[in-house]
Amino acid sequence: MALEQSRHGGLAMQRPSDDFLSSDPQAQRPWRRTGLKYPSLVALVVLLALALLALSYLPSPPTGDHGRAPLPHVAPASASLPLAPRPRRDVDITPCGDKPSNRGIKRHRGERQRWRERGAPSHSPCVEQPCKRGGSPQEDRLCFDGTVPPWLSEDDIQKMKLLTHGQVVSKSRVPAHGQVLRVRLHADGDTQPASPGKDCGDGRCGLIKRPTDLYEVVAFHLDRVLGLNRSLPAVARRFSSPVLPYSYTNSVPRPLIWWAPDVQHLEDTNNDQNSCALGWLQYQEMLRSHSVVPVAGDTACASIQRGEWGRLALFDFLLQVHDRLDRYCCGFKPDASEPCMEEMLHEKCRNPSELLLVHILVRRSDPSRLVFIDNAGRPQQPEAKLNFRLLQGIDSFPEAAVATLRSGCLAHRLLKSLYVDRELWESQGGAAGLWPLLQVLERRGQILLQYIQEHNLTVARDMLR
């Protein structure tokens, strides 16, 4: 009846529900023309079209082999640094002040994802642009293209250039160090001709160590970043000199450490890795009394400044170097494969009077400062086995080093510093390969800061730099 009234010109309005409930075939004719039975399907089609339109504007996935991101460079196993454990995620690190603003920088989401998958920081603010090429590959092994970090001195740079580019003219064995060679180097700019028979008193020599000791290069840069300045310059280098044995010229990078000609050694062949004989109990008494305990017939230890022990303890704790202050592994439970267990040194922990300090060295030209050698510590040492005995008796730490740890910039500054050594950088896979190791050092730094706070230890301004 309502439909008939409409045909005769009636103005009565139908309710929407009447159209759906009507059984009159004429009332359903408009929906049949569009191929739809219900108006709600129209809204569904519109939403689907909008969704397809939005998908068409999304960026395409990163390209590569078969659409996958390229894999990072993997160094040979023999040249790689020991794999460090992943740091805990609950570390609260202050944002690095070196990080520049990201304003105006657009990055593809696929690029950030690739960095995260490699375990590296999503953006490395402390690594400069690559050095300008143009010289020989050997000349490019050091990156000094206006990007020299401020913590590397001019003397450091000159010694690193000598170690990197110097021609090997002779070699000699080091007593009691079977896998270490001392080599004499000749640089292109030297005024005197190469002389293989000359000794190393002129500072033109270096120590080639094992490929597994590449951590010593990281230790050198850590020492400079912290402002300690007690370790000897070191670089990573591949050797091809016919003077060297074949095992040293197999294209595997090795650490080359500058040989300091005036390091003072004891004449005792059984204890020649020290400038003075110092026992653990004597060392602890010296720290408690704030003075130097005299050693009979020896004056080398008497000239060492008190602040040097804080430098040494901080450095050794971050690297977990046990050979100097705890070569007997008394500060943690060692594994059966540890040298201190194989040599039965750990048993002496029961009698502290038998414990001796090792590698306590000074230079004749500056006997008030310690010299840090053999710094290949333990990057893989887990947090449960961190050796806090290295910190025992220390009540003051250097201000500059502690400030760097507090800044939260240690890992980023190390990344920038290690970028200078292109041989190490490339052999370890660049930032992605080095970042896990640097995070471990950052984490240990935060643990040390917590130790300083809990024990109410002081921070002293450095008197000797």
Describe this structure in words.
This protein has 465 residues and is an alpha+beta fold. It has two domains: 1-39, no CATH class; 139-460, no CATH class. The protein has helices spanning 2-7, 16-21, 29-34, 40-56, 109-118, 154-165, 215-225, 280-289, 307-319, 339-342, 399-407, 410-418, 422-427, 430-454, and strands spanning 167-174, 177-186, 205-208, 234-237, 254-258, 361-363, 366-371, 396-398, 458-460. The strands form three sheets. The protein has a five-stranded antiparallel beta sheet, sandwiched between helices. Strands 6-7 form a two-stranded antiparallel sheet. A two-stranded parallel ribbon has the order 8-9. Helix 7 (215-225) packs across helix 12 (410-418) and helix 12 (410-418) runs antiparallel to helix 14 (430-454). The radius of gyration is 34 Å and the shape is globular. The protein starts with a helix and ends in a 5-residue tail after the last strand.
List the helices and strands and how they pair.
Elements (H helix, E strand, L loop, with lengths): L1 H6 L8 H6 L7 H6 L5 H17 L52 H10 L35 H12 L1 E8 L2 E10 L18 E4 L6 H11 L8 E4 L16 E5 L21 H10 L17 H13 L19 H4 L18 E3 L2 E6 L24 E3 H9 L2 H9 L3 H6 L2 H25 L3 E3 L5
Parallel strand pairs: 8-9
Antiparallel strand pairs: 1-2, 2-3, 3-5, 4-5, 6-7
Helix pairs in contact: 7-12, 9-14, 12-14
Name the beta content range. 5-15%
> What is the number of independent domains?
2
The first-to-last residue Cα distance is 106 Å
- In the predicted model, the low-confidence regions spanning at least 5 consecutive residues are 1-23, 25-36, 61-78, 83-94, 99-109, 133-138
Number of strands: 9
The order of strands across the largest sheet is 1-2-3-5-4
Derived structural class: alpha+beta
Total of helices = 14
Radius of gyration: 34 Å
Mean pLDDT: 78
Shape: globular
| Assembly category | single chain
For the sheet with most strands, the description reads:
5 strands, antiparallel
Helix content: 25-40%
Element string (H = helix, E = strand): HHHHHHEEEHEEHHHEEEHHHHE
GO cellular component, one term: Golgi apparatus
Protein name: Golgi associated kinase 1A
Family: Belongs to the GASK family.
Subcellular location: Endomembrane system; Golgi apparatus
